[in-house]
Every structure is written in C-alpha cells, then in structure tokens.
Amino acid sequence: MxxxxxxxxxxxxxxxxxxxxxxxxxxGFGWVEGVExxxxxxIHNPVDxxxxxxxxxxxxxxxxxxxxxxxxxxxxxxxxxxxIDRKKALTLxxxxxxxxxxxxxxxxxxxxxxxxxxxxxxxxxxxxxxGLAIGFGAQNLVRDLISGFFIIFEDQMEVGDxxxxxxxxxxxxxxxxxxxxKIREWxxxxxxxxxxxxxxxxxxxxxxxxxxxxxxxxxxIETERVEGILNQVCEDIGKRFAPYLLEKPSIYxxxxxxxxxxxxxLMALSHPEQYxxxxxxxxxxxxxxxxxxDIKIAYPRRILEPHASIQENEKTPG
Length: 318
Prior knowledge:
Elements: H1 5-27, H2 30-44, H3 46-81, H4 86-115, H5 121-125, H6 127-134, H7 139-153, E1 162-165, E2 169-176, E3 180-184, E4 190-194, E5 201-203, E6 212-217, H8 223-240, E7 245-257, E8 262-270, H9 275-292, H10 308-315
Antiparallel strand pairs: 1-2, 1-5, 2-3, 3-4, 6-8, 7-8
C-alpha cells in the first residue's frame, strides 16, 4: 500500500469537514452565533466592544463633515486664483464639488461598514455580476452621465446663463451636475432636468444679442415723418447706452403691412447681459416720442363708408 495514502485521506476528510462547517454556517444560523458572541463581548468588555467602535464611528462622521467643508472651500479658492471666466469657473467648481462629494460619501460608507464589522469586499468583488444584472435598468443613468459630460465639454451652457431648453422651459442655469441640471424660471420655479432629456438648448448669453422692436402706425401718417422720429429715438438710445452696444440702433425699415397699418422695426446689437434692457428702453423711447409728436400707435379698427346709392339719395332734393 502506498504510504502516502493515509495522508491523502486525512486531507480529504479535513477539507470535507471544513466545507461542511462552512455550508452549515451559510445555510444555518451562523450569524446568530456571531450576534451572541458580540453581545457577550459587550457585556464583559464594554470599552473595547462598544465604546471604542462608537468613538471611531463618531470620528469618521466628523472627518467626513470636515472633508466636505474643506474640499468645497479648497475648490473655490483654486478657481479664485485661476484666471478663468466667472461663469465657467462657477460651472466647473459645482461639477467638481459634486464628484468630490460622491467620492467622500463612498469612502466614508466603506470605512463605517468595516468598523461595525461588515466586510463589503464580497459585494465589491461581485460588482461585475451586479453591474451586468442592473445594466439594463441603468441605461437612463448612463445616458444622463454621458449627456452631462458633453453639455460641459461642448460649452452648451454655463451657470448663470439664460437659456431655453427643449423649447418649453426658459430660465437661468443654477447648476450643471453629473446627472441633473437645475434651471430657475423668472417666477422662481426651479426645474430639475435629467441631462439625457435635454435635446435642444437656446442660449441667450453667447457673445452678442440683437434687440428688435417693432411698432405699427396707421396708414394716414406719412412715412418720412415716422422715420424721422424713429431716427431721433435711435440716436438717443445710442448715446445713452453706448457702453452696452456693439452696434448703434437703426431703422431696419418697413417690415410689414397689415390691416392695422405700417410696421417699422428698430434693431441694435448689444452685449448679452443688456439685451432685455436695450429692448425695454427702445420701446419706452418710441412710446414717448410718438406721444410727444401726437402719433397714435395702430390698433385694429373698422371704417364704415356709406354706399353710393345712399349718397345719391342724400343729394337728391325732396
């Protein structure tokens, strides 16, 4: 008989016993025994078994809070030292803060699990299988992340820009995150839009804007008189708001003819931030100038003229 045979049998027996014990712990009540041992340790040695773990947990939470505060201030400080556009700096700082916040939460959660006796490594080791299992349900999340990256990379909008999204929502961009973009309307309603749902962006803060103001006057008023008054308005606006203008206001001309009258259009070219200011002042100046020169703005009206037979009857005596 081979002398090595007993050793082999013993090894097989030992491995089999270990496997049985492991199987019994997994399928039975091994976790109950672990809880009993933990309670027994707390009763006999509360300092090492309870107070020290609690102190470590409190310390981890405190360090997490400090890390969040310090990271935010550090990022703000870095962008203050860098010579970069204010809106772009604000956009990037909010995005980096978002990444840092998620990373700090993740590390703090793992540290807490280790300190309370839960080993998350098996879960992390099976992340590939879990990822495959939930991948089909996380398509929207992946789409949002990729869309958010391209929104920032292509400079479609920045924090502080006034935009119109998908032709429906108009407002100021408050934050561009890795998954969600926040837009606040003029009435202060805040919209949370998933980045993957943003298909069309109209940005009102790109280099220059063209204020356009149209006004309609009745047909009875001479064209030369109206254009002369509008030229005075353009000169006045050009002098008062010269620092905000890239191109002085001018008369585009007669832009439309309708049943109410003749439509004239004024135009200018301004910095994006003063776009609405210039339009408001142009309308105000046109209204004041027309009132001063006794010119009424056209409105829908109907003129009734008597029929020719009625006129003849009125002329016929008797």
